[in-house]
Structures are given as structure tokens and as C-alpha cells.
Write a structure and sequence with these properties.
Length: 178
């Protein structure tokens, strides 16, 4: 289990916060993967999200999605230390960034990240899932926000839906209860 290791530039306040968030994110991912492999455990809201945002409902499709979340979980357990992002790469409302496909670079966080909620919608935990999905699933930022997912769905752009980072984050954020 990854805890914030040596080599990070996080300060004494950020380090314990990140340690807590990483452990909680890992544990919530475990619940999600379990639920996707045993769909009887999914709530109607979660099933509805899967159908409307990703267009998946069969056991086979849910298992494939469980494999995607397993990749995210696996990365979070072994990723390099989280770092603070470069000032030039952080917009005023950016949570963080990552380099798609580049596992060695890891996740960078922006100052705005430290002002957002730990576990609700657009949360710190969700941000880790969003950034990890860029790295291990090569997701992109086609649309942000829940309404963005719906817009993609309306346009019936299935491949874009499957590769939209925020969609992985928002499904994760539906499992709020710790
Ligand atoms: Zn992104």
C-alpha cells in the first residue's frame, strides 16, 4: 500500500492529508470493483449512471469496467510520490494534472486542490481517480462535469465516453459512503 514516500515536495500539512486521501481512495476503489463484479450490490442510482453515462449494463461490460478500476487501484498502490505542480501548469481552478501513459511521472496537484472537499463531488479523492485514469487508461478531458458526461452520451460518442477522465471520477464519487 502506497503511502506518501520519500522524494515528495509536499509540506507538513499536505503530507498527512494526502496519506489519508490515498488510503481512503484505495479502499473505496476496492468497494467499487467488488460491486461491479457482483452487480446485485449496485444501487439503482449507480446502475442508472452506468447506463446513461457509459451505456453499460451487461455483466460482461461491468467486468471490463471493473478491470479498468482495478488498473487505477493498482496504480494508486504503487505510484511515485505525489508532487505539487509547476505554477505555470496550474490554472486558478485546476485540481491537478498528469501525463497520459506516463506511469513514472505520477500525479501533480495544484493549489486549488487543497481548497476542495475531501470526498463529495469534484472531490480530492475523485481527483486522484481522475488523474490516475489519465495515466493508466489514457483517458482524456473530452468534457468536464456530470452534465458533460450527458452531453457526450447525447452525442452517442461511445469511444469518447469510455475515454473521458471525469466519467471515471463521477462514478467513483457516487460511492461516497465510507
Ligand atoms: Zn483531466
Amino acid at each position: 500500500m502506497q503511502i506518501v514516500r520519500e522524494g515528495t515536495d509536499l509540506n507538513v500539512y499536505q503530507k498527512p492529508l494526502l496519506e489519508e486521501i490515498i488510503v481512503k481512495t484505495f479502499n473505496r476503489l476496492r468497494r467499487i470493483i467488488k460491486a461491479l463484479r457482483n452487480p446485485d450490490n449496485l444501487t439503482s442510482v449507480q446502475k442508472d449512471f452506468l447506463k446513461t453515462h457509459w451505456g453499460v449494463s451487461s455483466d460482461r461490460e461491468l467486468k471490463l469496467l471493473a478491470d479498468c478500476y482495478t488498473k487505477i487501484q493498482d496504480y494508486i498502490s504503487r505510484m511515485p510520490p505525489i508532487k505539487n505542480g509547476e505554477e505555470a501548469s496550474c490554472g486558478p481552478t485546476d485540481f491537478g494534472y498528469a501525463y497520459p501513459g506516463n506511469e513514472a511521472q505520477g500525479i501533480y496537484l495544484c493549489p486549488y486542490f487543497y481548497t476542495i472537499d475531501k470526498k463529495g463531488e469534484d472531490s480530492q479523492m475523485g481527483t486522484l481517480v481522475h488523474e490516475a485514469s489519465h495515466i493508466v487508461l489514457n483517458t482524456e478531458d473530452h468534457e468536464y462535469g456530470v452534465s458533460g458526461d450527458k452531453k457526450l452520451r447525447t452525442n452517442l460518442n461511445k469511444s469518447k465516453l469510455k475515454s473521458n477522465a471525469d466519467t471515471y471520477e463521477h462514478f467513483f464519487e457516487l460511492f461516497k459512503m465510507e
